[in-house]
Amino acid sequence: MRSTPVRQAVLLVAVVALVNLASLGVAWLTQRANTLQDLRADLDREMASFEISASPSALRTLVEARARVTDPRDTVFVFLGDDRRSTGNARAVLNGVDVGFTALEDTRPLSDEGYIDDVRRLSGGVLIVAKSLEPLARLGETFLVLLLVSTLPTVLIALGTGAVIARASARRVERIEGVLDRIASGDLAARSHETGDGDDLSRIGARVNRMAVKQEAATEALRQVTTDIAHDLRTPLQRIGVTLQDLEDRLPEGEARDLAQAAGEEAERAVSVFRALLQIAQIEGGSAKDRFRPVDLGAVALRIAELYEPSAEDREDRFTVDVPDTPVMVRGDGDLIGQALANLIENALRHTPPGGEVRVRVGPDGTLSVADSGPGIPETERDKVLRRLYRLERSRTTPGNGLGLALVAAIAESHGAALDLGDADPGLIVTLRFQG
């Protein structure tokens, strides 16, 4: 019911049902009025047939004759003479303008539906003629049958058909929503296939595709520019670094040599930035997938963690590695997964105060996580830190280039792994969830 097409179908069926009910209701009211008019016309004719009697005895005889051959369930004839004698096929009691009837005998019962009556004073008495309201009851039953046999199946068929059609439209909307979600999550190659019918959803799908094509082209152009800049500048920067190192070696101890050393370090930092940008571009280009093989996450975690244990010991950190006894196999590039883990461990050691805690864990379900006891990352910043060169304000005074988590995100995306940044309470926990 949250789907707009389904709601529209239900609303349309409701309108059809209301129109049908209204039509039946008007027809029933009209037919009921006509039936009542016919009953009153019958009463007038019956009364007219008795008005020819000139004396009470003749009227009584005529009423008795008609009552003998008439079923009281259809018509009641009663003559109440001024002598208090009653003649007819039922007993009648007058109470002002109201008339009450009771059966004379059990074999001739009265109508259960009530009567419409006419009371007139004729020839020394009161003549009462009443017609049963059973035709009105049968009319109501007929219209109820029409409602059940006609309206209800029509509503059910319309509702079922509308629901099927609306559900088909809802599925198309869901597919378009899925394409938009994939594009929003970074899969710019996602395309909508709702382009064949020429209806509104097809036109929306075509516009989504045009938007995706333009966005993919713009992103690819930006990526290519970034790659070209990184590639073109890396070699000159490396030469500057070598030249500065040579200059540092030739200068005597003093301020000039210190400046050359500082310049060399900055050049090396710039080279590392361009190297990381190139690597991210290569990973996003899909070249790493050619090297995918079955990889044991536990073995990768133990190998990388062993490299950082000495640094953690020097800082007096509690460095723990939790790996299952059985292999946890995923498909991917072991070197890239190891690099992602190394980046996460370096970030954890860099932002955790000395004496803190860093935990590396491999889950049997194909998860790889690194948690620390540092300050963590505010929830509003967690998506931003995955961007290239983005750094938190408090991290601008610490070493780094803002590409570590961006590289991890690129590696995760190339492996189809979900990347999640959460609260370690205290600290940050980064989790990679690989597919089996």
Net shape: rod-shaped
How is the CATH topology of the largest domain named?
Answer: Heat Shock Protein 90
Strand content: 15-25%
Q: Report strand order across the widest sheet.
A: 8-10-11-13-12
Termini separation (Å)? 36 Å
Helix-strand pattern? HHEEEEEEHHHEHEEHEEHEE
Main location: membrane
Organism: Maritimibacter alkaliphilus HTCC2654
Subcellular location: Membrane
Pfam family, one: HAMP
Give a summary of the structure in a few sentences.
By secondary structure, the protein is α+β, with helices and mostly antiparallel strands. The chain contains 8 helices and 13 strands.
Describe this structure as you would to a colleague.
The protein has 436 residues and is of the alpha+beta class. It has 3 domains: 4-137, no CATH class; 200-284, Helix Hairpins; 290-433, Histidine kinase-like ATPase, C-terminal domain (Heat Shock Protein 90, 2-Layer Sandwich). Helices cover 55% and strands 17% of the residues. It contains 8 helices and 13 strands. A 5-stranded mixed β-sheet has the order 8-10-11-13-12. A hairpin with a 2-residue loop joins strand 3 and strand 4. Helix 4 runs antiparallel to helix 5 (255-284), helix 5 (255-284) runs parallel beside helix 8 and helix 6 runs parallel beside helix 7 (334-351). The relative contact order is 0.06. The model has no long low-confidence stretch (mean pLDDT 81).
